[in-house]
Design a protein that fits this description.
The protein is of the alpha+beta class. 22% of the residues lie in helices and 36% in strands. It has three helices and ten strands. The chain has a five-stranded mixed beta sheet with strand order 1-3-8-9-10, with no helix packed on it. Strands 2-5-4-6-7 form a five-stranded mixed beta sheet. A hairpin with a 4-residue loop joins strand 4 and strand 5.
């Protein structure tokens, strides 16, 4: 069943679920999959650090990379995912307005993600980040396959 993840949201699921998120520009799309348990999740985080609005982060941790990533992992552990088996992929973190973008949100989202993963001894298996394109992600939780679609071109990540 297709589940659409909007900006500032996250969904987890299992075999038979396809998680989809659209219009990844500067936002981070993070896909985490445990092939043995056949569970996974997709996070569409908008901003790097929750400290800019702790109240909003408490209401919706998925809006921020620093709160959304740990929360997604926690929920995956609850449904049988194990860190040692997890396959992690990232998409987005671009500069949809080009290099003139003042706040460099995409780059900062990516930096916060890399620091979080590094601190927890987790490596990215694949990524499609940066640039000025918008991406749509299709994440099949039966197989772990991630398809990135941009400007009508689809490729496996």
């Amino acid at each position: 069943m297709n589940q659409v993840i909007t900006v500032g949201d996250m969904k987890i699921g299992g075999k038979g679920d396809i998680l989809v998120t659209h219009a990844l520009g500067s936002c981070l799309g993070l896909m985490v999959y445990d092939p043995a348990a056949q569970v996974g999740g997709l996070l569409h985080a908008m901003l790097p650090l929750s400290k800019i609005n702790l109240q909003k982060a408490a209401q919706n941790p998925y809006m921020f990379v620093d709160t959304g990533v740990p929360e997604m992992f926690r929920q995956l552990y609850e449904i049988g995912g194990q860190k040692s088996r997890m396959v992690i992929k990232a998409a987005g973190c671009g500069q949809p307005l080009g290099n003139s973008e003042m706040f460099q949100i995409g780059e900062r989202n990516y930096t916060v993600l890399k620091k979080l993963l590094w601190k927890n001894n987790i490596m990215l298996e694949a990524e499609d980040v940066g640039g000025v394109i918008s991406r749509t992600v299709y994440f099949d939780l039966s197989t772990g396959q991630v398809i990135i679609s941009s400007k009508g071109v689809k490729k496996e990540l």
